[in-house]
Amino acid sequence: xxxxxxxxxxxxxxxxxxxxxxxxxxxxxxxxxxxxxxxxxxxxxxxxxxxxxxxxxxxxxxxxxxxxxxxxxxxxxxxxxxxxxxxxxxxxxxxxxxxxxxxxxxxxxxxxxxxxxxxxxxxxxxxxxxxxxxxxxxxxxxxxxxxxxxxxxxxxxxxxxxxxxxxxxxxxxxxxxxxxxxxxxxxxxxxxxxxxxxxxxxxxxxxxxxxxxxxxxxxxxxxxxxxxxxxxxxxxxxxxxxxxxxxxxxxxxxxxxxxxxxxxxxxxxxxxxxxxxxxxxxxxxxxxxxxxxxxxxxxxxxxxxxxxxxxxxxxxxxxxxxxxxxxxxxxxxxxxxxxxxxxxxxxxxxxxxxxxxxxx
Length: 360
Prior knowledge:
Shape: elongated
Structural class: alpha+beta
Mean pLDDT: 95
């Protein structure tokens, strides 16, 4: 009983301390599972276009964007993944100005700051609490507390009489306090595994370098190769995006280009990212690096040749966002995001109506 009381107090006060943070994280995460669909409905004039027979060159789109926003620097460009999707050019960094362009006419359809859109603001709230790196660290600590609550909750849920079935049920005909208790206990056991996965994968995304290093050490796998550097500046025109795209296609023709990252420093390379049809990661994990001055291929990173440690790391993001197995797991992830709210509210009600000295 002394051990159980310690576990109970740890579960209780961790929940009271971190409950609101975990509610916020869960609810915002649920919204972001279908972020692209929400944005398409909210901004169809930016996200959708009418397919036509011919499209303009990628370099033409880039030049149009540069002329329209001379004070901003291209950061990356997302290529259309369906005939109806538009180009998305991120300017300055991954979370600043978003410019949309029609792939068939090359015309700019509009632009918006990520923080000025509902889903963009929600994304910044979910990933960094609108506070940059400090917010990320707080969320990483929150993930640890969520995992702690999951483990202690399972210990408290485990019946001392060995009868497990009542722990999965809710007696709707009972007194409201009993219903609240059953709802807390049942929802906790049903959601425990998925919350634990969300906590561990969320922690890995915040502290990715440390987690990746641990995974490589445990699996005794070689780490990903360090991204190469471009050579010395050349007195020749920079390679066009169309040339880079064609080279990337020749190297890995079965994979579609999802993103092209622009060099942000004098030694950084161009990075073309590609996705194979069978990959679970929405952006793919194949990378082709090009010298920013000559367009020479510097390095090719294929998921098919990745080590076990890299493969494990590659699965963490799809697991966290729910895209690992398509729509069913995305819906499951939405439900998982609501679980912290149910658990916090029912737990808070239990705490407010507790009887002194009672444990579990």
